[in-house]
Amino acid sequence: MSEFEKSREKFEEALLNLEQIVDQMVDKDFKYSQRGSDKKIIEKTEDLTILKKERDELKLQLLEATENYNSLSTVTTQLSNRLDETIKKLKSVLE
User: Fold this and answer.
1) What are the start-end ranges of the H helices in 1-95?
2) Angle 24-30-36 (CA atoms, 0-180°, nearest 5)?
3) Structural domain span for residue 16
4) Is 81 helix (H, G, I), strand (E, B) or coil?
5) Contact assessment for residue 59 and residue 22, using Cβ atoms and an 8 Å cutoff
6) Domain total in the chain
């Protein structure tokens, strides 16, 4: 597994953990709203909004990293093919 794939996997795990924390906060926020603590609800809602924003930013970063990886992979494949063809031509000239 390449370093990029390891980093991507860790990034995805962190994103999953963040999403789980947000979901837990939503559940807790719902319970607090039933008990009726307006100040805590407002604070939790603000925290939830911040966490959702961070999650969305992480998703965008992951998408960008994936796109960069795919572009790099395409270029690497093209260069590899060109190099193979050049080696074949050189080999035929030397024979």
Assistant:
1) 3-35, 38-94
2) 135
3) 3-94
4) helix
5) no
6) 1
* pLDDT tens digits for range 86-95: 889 888 888 7
User: What is each CA distance from 79 to 7, 52, 76, 86, 88, in whole angstroms?
Assistant: 25, 40, 5, 10, 14
- Cβ(15)–Cβ(62) below 8 Å: yes
pTM for this one? 0.48
Contact of 29 with 48, CB cutoff 8 Å: yes
Which of 49, 41, 68 lies closest to 57, judged by CA? 49
Contact 25, 44 (CB under 8 A): yes
> pLDDT digit string (tens) for 70-79?
989 999 999 9
8 band by pLDDT with thresholds 50, 70 and 90: confident
Six token digits for residue 52: 């959702």
Helices 3-35 and 38-94 sit at what angle, rounded to 10 degrees?
170
